[in-house]
Amino acid sequence: MAAKSDGAAASAGPGPEGVAGGARGSASGCGEAAAAAGPPGSVGAGGPGPRYELRDCCWVLCALLVFFSDGATDLWLAASYYLQGQHTCFSLTLLFVLLPSLVVQLLSFRWFVYDYSEPAGSPGPAVSTKDSVAGEAAISTKDSAGAFRTKEGSPEQGPQPAPSSASAYRRRCCRLCIWLLQTLVHLLQLGQVWRYLRALYLGLQSRWRGEQLRRHFYWRMLFESADVSMLRLLETFLRSAPQLVLQLSLLVHRGGAPDLLPALSTSASLVSLAWTLASYQKVLRDSRDDKRPLSYKGAVAQVLWHLFTIAARSLAFALFASVYKLYFGIFIVAHWCVMTFWVIQGETDFCMSKWEEIIYNMVVGIIYIFCWFNVKEGRSRHRMTLYHCIVLLENAALTGFWYSNRNFSTDFYSLIMVCVVASSFALGIFFMCVYYCLLHPNGPMLGSQAPGCIFRGASEPCGPPADAITSPPRSLPRTTGAERDGASAGERAGTPTPPVFQVRPGLPPTPVARTSRTEGPVIRIDLPRKKYPAWDAHFIDRRLRKTILALEYSSPATPRLQYRSVGTTQELLEYETTV
C-alpha cells in the first residue's frame, strides 16, 4: 500500500540491506540507520539514539525569553511614543510589530488546521507497515491521523473496538475545545509561544516515557521545533530587522545620549535576530541524519557571529538613513533585488512547489540584506567570502557618505560611530572564523573534515555504498520492439553501450564477520531526498508528515525512512530492459 502526498508515495515494508536516508528524529531509528548504511560493526537495531537533555530544555526556555523581551520592549516603546505625542514614530513602531505578527499567526494557524483536520468524505491516504521480524503480521490504517486515536499507554497493536456514542461525544467535545483554544491563542498572537511550549512538553515526554513512546515523542518534538524555527525566522526578519534599523535611525537623528527604552528595544531586536538564526541552523542539522548535529558551543559562536555582523550592518544603515532617507530606500530595494536574483540563480530546492520556492527566495533576499544565510549545498566558503566582501564595501560606503556630512574637526562623536561599525564587523568575522575553524560540526575548516554523519564512532562516510540499490521500483517497464531495434542499430553504428553484467571483485579469502542485525520496517518515500541545507520533504510536506507519524506510532519498531535514489533506479531499469 502507498500513501500519496502531492505526487509522492510513502509506503512501509521490510527494506533491503542498503537502506539510505531517513529521519534522525527517533532514537533507535538512528541506530537502525547506522546498521543499514554504516560499516560493519556499527550500531544495530535497538542501539542508543539521541535523547532529549536538560540543556535542550534550557535552550527552549531561553528562546521564549528572547521572544517575550523582543515583543514587550517594542510594545512598551510604541506606548511611550504615543504618550509623548510622537504619532509618526508610534505608527511605524506599531506597524512593524503587528503586521509581521499577523502574517506569522495566519501561517501558524493554517498549519494547525491542516494538521488537525479530518476531511469529511475522503478516507485519507491508505498506509500500511509490515515488520519483517513479525513475519506476516501487518498493521494498517486508512487515515494518517487514525493511529493517534489509539491509547498511548497500551503496547498491544490489535484491532480496536468500535467507539461508543459516549466516547464519540467526548471526542467531539475534546476537538471543539482544542479548536477554541488554538483560535484564542492565535488571536492573542501567541502561536509561537504555544509551539515552543508544545515542543518542550514533547521533549520532556520523550525523556520520561518508555522506549517506544520515547521515540514517538522525540520525533514529534523535532517536527514541532522545525515549525517554530521556520516561523521565528520569518517573523524576526519581517519585524525585528526593520524595527532595529528604525530605532537606530531615530537614535542617530536625535544625537546625544540614547534613551533607555529605545536602547533596550534595539538590543532585544538584535539578540532576537542572532538567536533565531543560530536556533534555525541547530534544528535543521538536528533533523537530518546525514549531518552531524550542531553543538551548543557552536550555536553560541553563531549567535555572537550574527550579533556583531548584524549590529554593524544595522548601524551603517541607520547612519546613512538619518541623512539620506530617499537614497536609503533605493539602496535597500536594489540590494534586495540583486540578492533575490542571486538566490534564484542558484536554483534552490527548499519547497514542494514552484511558487512557494519563489516566495522563499524573496524572503531569503530580505535575510541577505542583513546577514549571510546558506541556501546551497557544497563548500560555501567562496560564496560566503564574496558576500562578506560586498557587505564590507557597502558598510564602508554608507558610513563614509554619512561621515562626509559631519564636521571633521569638532565632531568626535562621528569618529566614534565609525569605529563602532568597523570594530563590530571585525568582531563578527572573528567569531565566524572561530566557528568554522574550531566549532564546526564537520571539524576544523583548515584541517581534515570528518564526514557529515551523526554517528561519531563511524570511521567511514554515512550512506549506502555507491552500487547499493536503495529504492527498487514497484514495477519496471518492458523494452518495446522499436527500442530493441534502435539499440541494435546503435550498436551497429559503433555507439558505446554499457555492459549488461559487470564482474565485481570477489569476496576476500577470509570472510569478514558482520554484526547480526534484525530488520525493521522501512517507510519508502517516492521522492528524491532534498540536499542540505534544505529540510527533508517529511518536514515541509505536512500530509507526508501525518502519514509517517501514523506509521511510526502503529509500528512495534521505529521505522527507517528511505527516499528514492534516482541513479540506482535508472541502473535497475536499464538492467531490466536489457534482459
From TrEMBL:
One of its GO terms (cellular component) is plasma membrane. Coiled coil: none annotated. InterPro entries: XK-rel, XK-related_scramblase. The keyword Transcription regulation does not apply. GO terms for biological process: apoptotic process involved in development; engulfment of apoptotic cell; phosphatidylserine exposure on apoptotic cell surface. It is found in: Cell membrane; Membrane. Residues 15-24 have a biased composition (Gly residues). It is a multi-pass membrane protein. Keywords: Cell membrane, Membrane, Transmembrane, Transmembrane helix. The chain crosses the membrane at residues 58-78, 90-113, 326-346, 358-375, 384-403, 415-438. Residues 1-14, 155-166 have a biased composition (Low complexity). Residues 1-24, 147-166, 466-517 are annotated as: Disordered. Belongs to the XK family. This is XK-related protein. It comes from Cercocebus atys (Sooty mangabey).
